[in-house]
UniProtKB/TrEMBL annotation:
Record carries keyword Flavoprotein: yes
NCBIfam families: cyt_tran_rel, PRK05627.1-3, PRK05627.1-5, ribF
Protein name: Riboflavin biosynthesis protein
MF (Gene Ontology): ATP binding; FMN adenylyltransferase activity; riboflavin kinase activity
PANTHER family: RIBOFLAVIN KINASE (PTHR22749:SF6), RIBOFLAVIN KINASE/FMN ADENYLYLTRANSFERASE (PTHR22749)
Involved pathway(s): Cofactor biosynthesis; FAD biosynthesis; FAD from FMN: step 1/1; Cofactor biosynthesis; FMN biosynthesis; FMN from riboflavin (ATP route): step 1/1
Length: 313
């Protein structure tokens, strides 16, 4: 997949036109996948290039600032997921105050018509754009007639009697309901990062851990989880703890992953952690012995959870 930020960075031949969709695509969930799959189908039918238009930074980071909700997928993860769907080009537009001030017509003319030569546009049921979010499906349809492209609006994807949305997924994750997001995302919730040095307390207790720093991802409820740790393509059963380590009067949020039956040195390596099931909330123990006994129970329960068919990746 080609990634471009400006018109001059596009090397893909768009002279024959493109089929595109546009949005923030946080999570690249089942609703987003349906939009992109529809674009791919239209591209195949009309021999067009397939394009996803998205933004960096997320518009809310510019318009709302520090109160922006955390993301389900950070930028590189989002791009990887879009690429996995088979898209030819992702247009990663820089969102800034200048773009926010564009009228819907100016936005469409510059980016969709001039830059991408769009012939087919697919949007979600609630898509709005342009200054003051004045642009909507009706306006896009009018602009399509003016500039020569077709517009299709897709209905929402319904799973378990509710619309699949990034907000719904985010709420599940924050509540620790990580297993509930799998049908909505089409995969388990994943965070990733480089393994960094910690306090080495887990090793002293007999349960060495890989420590990761969460960035802008939505943070699950504090507690213990059964997870898959993905290291250099290998999937390894693991148990993870997210919290403040109250037994040791911790003051800083930490995310530690104990990979079962594993003794390799992986400092500096990238680790992807797939959240499968919440095991228990964080709690304070009377001391190391009680904590060690409970970690053993957590590890045994994680093994059983991860052995189940529904826990497989």
């Amino acid at each position: 997949m080609e990634i471009a930020r400006r018109k001059q960075e596009i090397s893909l031949d768009l002279s024959g036109g493109s089929a595109a969709t546009i949005g923030n695509f946080d999570g690249v969930h089942k609703g987003h996948a349906r939009l992109i799959e529809r674009v791919l189908a239209k591209a195949r039918t009309r021999s067009l290039a397939s394009v996803v238009v998205t933004f960096c930074p997320h518009p809310l980071q510019v318009l709302v600032g520090p109160h922006t909700p955390p993301f389900i997928t950070v930028r590189d993860q989002k791009l990887d997921l879009i690429e996995d769907l088979g898209v030819d080009l992702t247009m990663l537009l820089e969102f800034n105050r200048e773009m926010a001030s564009l009228s819907p017509r100016d936005f469409v003319h510059k980016y969709l018509v001039d830059w991408l030569n769009v012939k087919e546009l697919v949007v979600g049921y609630d898509y709005t754009f342009g200054k003051g979010r004045q642009g909507n499906f009706a306006m896009l349809t009018e602009l399509g007639r003016e500039f020569g492209f077709n517009v299709e609006r897709l209905d929402p994807v319904i799973i378990n009697d509710a619309i699949v949305s990034s907000t719904r997924i985010r709420d599940h994750i924050k509540a620790g309901e990580v297993f509930a997001v799998r049908p909505l995302l089409g995969r388990f919730y994943v965070v990733r990062g480089k393994v960094v040095s910690g306090e080495s307390r887990g090793r002293l207790l007999g349960f060495p851990t890989a420590n990761l720093t969460l960035e802008n991802e939505v943070s699950p409820k504090n507690g213990v989880y059964a997870v898959w740790a993905q290291l250099n393509g290998r999937l390894l059963p693991a148990v993870a703890n997210l919290g403040y380590k109250p037994t040791f009067e911790g003051k800083k949020l930490s995310f530690e992953v104990h990979i079962l039956d594993f003794a390799e040195d992986i400092y500096g390596h990238e680790l992807r952690v797939h959240f499968v099931q919440f095991i228990r909330p964080e709690q304070k123990f009377s001391g190391p012995d009680e904590l060690i006994a409970r970690i053993r129970e957590d590890a045994a329960l994680a093994r059983r959870i991860l052995a189940a068919p529904e826990a497989q990746l």
